[in-house]
Amino acid sequence: MTEIKPCIFNINLEDFESAVLTPSHQTPVLVDFWADWCSPCIAIAPVLTRVVEAFNGQVLLAKLEVDEGHNMKLAGQFRVRGFPTIILFKNGAEQDRFSSARPAHFIEQFIQQHL
Fold it and tell me: Of the listed 20, 41, 64, 75, which one is catalytic?
């Protein structure tokens, strides 16, 4: 797990349970399934960052680059069909998801309904 900012970090298949599932029992964790070649992924990244930072630690953002290592296995496990797909985990399980680039107000409302 590589920390980008206190509430935003990179994850991979190996640390998914310890970095996402376990902490989600205390704090909701958004997982951004993204790819380097995906334009909508690049577009939503700064929006996700701003929104998550504005929640001041009430939600975490884990970024999973699907083309690195064995990360595509996680995308398959969670039936991710397109990128970006953002899945919210709470209490160790998937609670909700959305796909494609979305505006900040959509992401804020999405998070708020799970706090």
Answer: 41
